[in-house]
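Appendix B, example 12.
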Amino acid sequence: SMTSEDGKLKVEKEKVGKVKAKEIEADVIFDQPPATILNSMLPLYLNSQMLSILFDAQASELSSRMTAMKAATDNASELAAKLTTIMNKKRQAAITQELCEISAGAMATETAEDKAGPALGVFDNEDTVLDDLMTEIESGGVPDAPLEPATILGM
């Protein structure tokens, strides 16, 4: 029992003797013998235990499926994000490549003043270009060493 003395709580244990089975009053009176009651209750008990086991197994299976689906969803989200990043990088690289080509072409047309040689004509092909190149080499129109890009573009 719990008491308070001088404003402090105090717990005291009281020993109570054991009750003998013969002293317990019979609250329930059975009309049938114990063997008959056991034979009728045992199948019900076993049936409820089997149902409980089956329900637990199904709940465990569904829980495992939910966990697997959550992991699959997370993996798919990560993969989608990674593939989107890769696609964006490749698209950006293609755009950058096109811009470089456009700006290089624009620079070439702005600064080309016949410093890189004459433009090819309508009748130029592999045979005539080789003949023209040989003529330029013999006449001394082609330098012995390649020119620097800055020299050709006039920078």
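The mean pLDDT is 80. Helices lie at 34-111, 126-139, 149-153.
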